[in-house]
Amino acid sequence: MLNFLPSKLVGVIASFLLFVNILFWVSILFVFSIPKILLPWPPLLRIINRMLHWIGENWIAGNSGWMWLTQKTQWDVQGVDGLNYNGWYLVVSNHQSWVDILVMQHLLNRRIPLLKFFIKRELIKVPLMGFAWWALDYPFLYRHSSEYLKQHPEQQGKDFEATRKACEKFATIPTSVMNFLEGTRFTKEKHDKQKSEYKFLLRPKSGGLALALNVLGEKFNSMLDITIVYPDGIPGFWDFLCGKVKRITVRMRTIEIPQHLLQGDYEGDPAFRDTMHKWVQKLWQEKDKQMQKILKCPLSSSI
Predict the structure, then answer these.
(1) Of 104 and 46, which is predicted with more confidence?
(2) What CATH number is given for 74-296 in this structure?
C-alpha cells in the first residue's frame, strides 16, 4: 500500500500504472482485433469475442491491482452474492463521477459478464481507449439534444438504431449491458437546471433501456440495479487517483423485469412508453430514498 505517500505523488503513481495497464492490454486487443476486421465470419467472431472479453477482464483486474496498491478506501458493499457469470444482465446505476466506472468494474469483474457501457460517439476519437471500446463492441451513441433534433430531424432515431445493432451483437455471447439512465453525471447545476424531483438524482431516461429490453429481453436473467454513494462527497477522478476517496458505499439488487416490458414499441406506442416511464421513475424514487438513508447512516460492513 502506497497511501502513506503524499497524495499528489500517489496520484502520479496511480496515473502511471493506469496508463501502463491501458497500453499493455490495448496492444493485445489490437492484435486479436485484426482477424475481427479482416475475417468477419460469425463462428470465428464468436471465438474472437470471447478472447477479447478475456482480455477485457484481465485489463480490469489490472486496474483493481493498482487501486489496491495506491488506495486506502473503505468499501461498504451489499448485493454481490449470487450473481451469475454465464448469464445476461441489464445493469443500471446512478452516475456521479468517472470513478463510478472503476467502482463497478472492480466489484463486478468475473462475477457477471464483461460490462458494456453506452458511450458518446465522439469518444471513439479518444486515443487508445476509443479503439478498445470499439474492439469490445461498446455501443456508441449520438446523444443529440432535443433542440438539435428539432433543427436536424434526419438524425432522429440514430441512437435507437445504434443501440439495436449493438444489442444484436450481444445476443451471441453472455453480456452485461450497462446504462446510466440519467445520461450524464450528476452535478448540482444540472440538478437545479432540470428542477429534478429527486434529491440526489437527475431525471432518468428510459428510451435506451426500452430498446435493450425489446432486442434482448428474453435473454436477460434479470436487471441489476446499482446505487453508488460517496459519503464524503462526490470525487473527481484525480481525487480518486490521489487516494482521497476514503469511503465508497455500494448497494446492488437483482430485479425481475416485468414480462410486459420485454416487448413493446417505445417510439410508436404512447401507452407502452408511459408504462416504461412509470416503472423507471419508481426505480428512481426507491434509489433516491436509499441514497438518503445511506447518507444518514454509518458504514455497516466492509470488504
Answers:
(1) 104
(2) 3.40.1130
